Amino acid sequence: MRIVSPLYRFIVCITFLLNTMRIHTLDLLFQNQPGVIAAFLLELEAGLALVETGPASTLPTLLAAIRALGFDPADIHQVFVTHIHLDHAGAAGWWAQQGAKVYVHPRGAQHLVDPSKLMSSAAQVYGDRLDSLWGQMLPAPADKVVALKDGEAVKIGKTKIVALDTPGHAKHHHAYLCGDVCFTGDVAGVRLEHSAYLSVAAAPPQFDPVAYSASIARLHELNLAKLYLTHFGEITDVSHHLSQYALRVEQAHEGVEEMIQAGVSGTMLRHSYTATEAALSMDAGVSEELWEKYQ
């Protein structure tokens, strides 16, 4: 029988610790509601990294959550945003102004440097609720914004974070692969507080069901151990989740297409779609209270 020395055990233990990554899911408590928007703090052997910044309106909550874990936000030098929508990257400019590098899809980089067009479009949608919902997106210094191409990797110590071009929800969408774990932004959908209901993240005008299906299939082929959804949290039944979400994207697209062909449009179309989704959520065990919270 082989005798394993204490020194050998110590070396194995240290090697294991040095090659592991701790992922902290930070609930940004958007509009004082838990389980809506997450950011992810990566505790690596070579330092800290952040995936998603959330909106500017939740920046104080994000900073407090980082400090509550015993870390200093000033020690975060790499920030990854899956796409430039305000719920994912609204605070990216602030981090860049502190000196952090912000990694983003090439189609989104210029909008971080000059967010005026993005904010103007958001103002048309949200009107006088813009500030209370999302806050103001600050411009990021151009030299702090790094556009990553599909398959391009950022190495932080021994850890590689790989950008995956995953359009469908938006043309400027990345998922980030780290070993057998993936931070999916919106390409793997929205799950309501561990319920069986999956909501399709389909922001106009860039929703593309064909590209969406291809992106989901791409993630499926990676045989991932975990997904981390910005809305919301950790998924361990990856294959089942992605299979179900692919069906939901198809159902949502076909359902709306049928309504349009039947002459339903405008406000009635929105009401009909919402009613259909509400019914699906109730069938999946979502309470009326939870549904109203997310609405």
What does this 3D model show about the protein?
- There is one protein chain.
- With 295 residues, the chain is α/β, with parallel strands linked by helices.
- The protein has helices spanning 6-18, 59-68, 86-89, 92-97, 109-113, 116-126, 130-133, 209-221, 238-261, 266-283, 288-294, and strands at residues 22-27, 38-44, 47-51, 76-80, 101-104, 145-147, 153-156, 159-165, 174-178, 181-185, 190-191, 198-199, 226-229, 233-235.
- A hairpin with a 2-residue loop joins strand 7 and strand 8.
- Helix 8 packs antiparallel against helix 9 (238-261).
- The chain is globular and about 55 Å long.
- The termini are far apart.
Query: Which structural class should the secondary elements be placed in?
Result: alpha/beta
Largest sheet data? 6 strands, mixed
Radius of gyration: 20 Å
Distinct helical segment count: 11
**Distance N to C terminus:** 63 Å
| Number of distinct beta strands | 14
The percentage helix is: 25-40%
Walk across the major sheet and give the strand order: 1-2-3-4-5-6
Average pLDDT taken over every residue: 91
